[in-house]
Design goal:
With 578 residues, this protein is of the alpha+beta class. The chain has eleven helices and 28 strands.
């Protein structure tokens, strides 16, 4: 865990750190619980300036942080990777003293700030940033080459967070209200980033600076730098709310033809799908942007990373482009309150793909996609644990970011079990109520069609979604979320024939009352069977005359699927011993 230092202990340290410290491997995990210092302020604006020194694979620049005090402050605590050298810290009145450790930067403010005061501190720094060994699963910078041998640079930092790049508040609660981003690169390269391109300035030394600006709150891990000899492909799309949205695809020169095929075939079509199902694209006043990257992809707000090599999946569309675009709604507008609510991002992103497959191909594709995902559910740990995790702990379940076992997080279940939770919730609520709840979760209104860009972002938790869904059907759904989100194992439905008829019983739910309805087909008629507690009786029905849940609308443990324990035993048996 990152260390929390009190203000008293900070003042006891030396007034200025002159020796730069190194980063331990554990300090780059993003989204640890907020320390006292990080709870003391909100970030209003970042001005990030970076000279991208490609030959040295390093960066040099500054981060100006304008922040507002939420409590009385004498020290500004920032997350920042100890790999970087600090060249100086100042405010408008001059140099400021600071101390640091391997993951933190503590700036002694010139004068105490009272609640509500705003102030700006600028940190100047340089160094070689963490390099991603296996982006996007391992975060950091990616220094690569295009097929023609030209520089190709990208960032991916969801797990590690903004502090591996610039001094920041590295937590979902650290979203700035706006940002200015200045990137200086060689003249023959383009730097594509978030928001709107304000201008490009020739520096006169064979280099030029791209100035990007975004005036909407942005996930800090969604801030991105993409540098390459890009070709810009662009068009526009008229949103359902009337906003004219710039569509922009930065593709490397080598792939222009394939990029145009993807752009012309899927950008507008997929956007139309999301607007119809969920609501207006949230950042229409800026752009729907995509940049081709040397790694697979990531949901960077208005500049999604794409590296799927223009491959259509089994269901007739580019799944990577579709998935990252989904995060503009489920992740960038509706943002998890803590990492333990990350399934709201990934579960919805995964859920929308079978929905789209049904539109592209038909019901067969929908059911095939759902069943394939079902077979990947581990059901070992809750997808929404009540304790707070780091991003690595949550994503890697059986292993930490180093490949060591942790056994705490849900890992892939935030995708697979998350989408199945939503699929079953739709059955419980009904189609119309379900989608009203989705829109309220994202937009805070069930009728977002009239909302104009920019859409106001909001933080959401699993409990928020429980409340909204319960309100939509006027029924408390705590039992549903407790079993599917807060616990690991899947519920088991026992089906047996008695003298009175077909008996259905939910087991493996402990003492919880779990009245999950189940569809049953009898005599070619599908009926919804409601439960009294955990039991339901179909009087006079024989087991041979009934088919339980023929379309797999209810998430449950099937006899043919191994349990979590069985999966772990099999994995252990197949793992060679050192």
């Amino acid at each position: 865990m990152l260390r929390t230092l009190t203000i008293i202990s900070l003042l006891a340290l030396a007034s200025c750190a002159t020796v730069d410290v190194k980063r331990s491997e554990s300090t780059t995990d993003s989204s640890r619980p907020l320390t006292e210092g990080l709870q003391s302020y909100d970030v209003e604006h970042y001005t990030l300036r970076n000279d991208i020194l490609i030959d040295e694979e390093s960066i040099a620049g500054s981060s100006a942080i304008r922040f507002r005090a939420l409590r009385d402050m004498t020290v500004l605590e920032l997350d920042f990777d100890g790999l970087f050298t600090i060249d100086g810290i100042e405010d408008d009145a001059g140099t400021l003293d600071y101390t640091r450790d391997e993951a933190k930067l503590y700036v002694n403010l010139r004068a105490p700030l009272a609640v509500g005061d705003s102030h700006t501190v600028t940190v100047r720094y340089h160094g070689v940033p963490l390099e991603a060994e296996r982006a996007p699963w391992d975060g950091g910078f990616v220094w690569s080459k295009t097929p023609a041998g030209k520089p190709w640079v990208a960032t991916a930092m969801q797990g590690e967070g903004c502090d591996i790049w610039w001094p920041c508040k590295d937590h979902p609660a650290g979203e700035p209200s706006s940002m200015d981003l200045y990137f200086t690169v060689p003249n023959d390269l383009t730097a594509a980033s978030n928001g709107v391109l304000v201008d490009t300035r020739d520096e006169g030394n064979g280099r030029r600076t791209f100035h990007w600006r975004t005036d909407v709150p942005t996930n800090t891990y969604g801030v991105a730098l993409n540098v390459a000899p890009y070709v810009l492909i662009e068009d526009s799309y008229t949103s359902s709310n009337g906003t004219e949205i710039p569509l922009m695809f930065w593709a490397i020169e080598d792939h222009e033809e394939d990029a145009r095929a993807l752009f012309e075939g899927e950008f507008a079509k997929v956007l139309e799908f999301f607007e119809h199902k969920v609501g207006p694209y949230p950042w229409g006043q800026e752009k729907l942007g995509v940049a081709e990257t040397p790694h697979l992809g990531m949901e960077h707000q208005t500049i999604n990373a794409y590296g799927n090599e223009f491959r259509r999946g089994d269901y007739g569309f580019d799944w990577l482009f579709h998935h990252e675009l989904a995060h503009e709604w489920f992740g960038n507008v509706m943002t998890h309150t803590t990492v333990s609510d990350m399934w709201l991002h990934e579960g919805f992103g995964a859920f929308m793909q079978p929905e789209y497959a049904r539109e592209v191909i038909g019901d067969a594709a929908f059911h095939a996609a759902m069943y394939n995902s079902y077979l990947k559910i581990n059901a070992c740990n809750p997808i929404a644990p009540r304790e707070e995790f780091s991003a690595d702990e949550l994503y890697f379940d059986e292993r930490t970011g180093k490949g060591e076992r942790s056994g705490k997080g849900p890992a892939g279940d935030i995708y697979t079990k998350g989408m199945w939770l939503l699929h079953s919730l739709r059955y419980v609520m009904g189609e119309d109520a379900f989608w009203r709840a989705v829109r309220r979760l994202v937009y805070d209104t069930a009728n977002p069609a009239a909302l104009t860009a920019p859409i106001t972002p909001r933080f959401r938790s699993t409990d928020d979604y429980l409340r909204i869904a319960s309100e939509e059907i006027d029924t408390d759904l705590s039992w549903f979320f407790e079993v599917y989100a807060r616990r690991g194992p899947l519920p088991v439905l026992d089906v047996s024939e008695t003298d009175d008829g077909l008996l259905l019983q939910w087991t493996n739910v402990g003492d919880l009352v779990f009245p999950m309805p189940v569809p049953v087909r009898v005599d070619n008629r599908l009926r919804r069977v409601e439960f009294d507690g955990n039991r339901a009786l179909l009087a006079g029905v024989r087991q041979s005359d009934a088919q339980v849940d023929p379309f797999m609308q209810v998430l449950r443990k099937l006899p043919s699927v191994p349990t979590c324990e069985e999966r772990r035993e099999e994995e252990a048996a197949n793992t060679p011993h050192r």
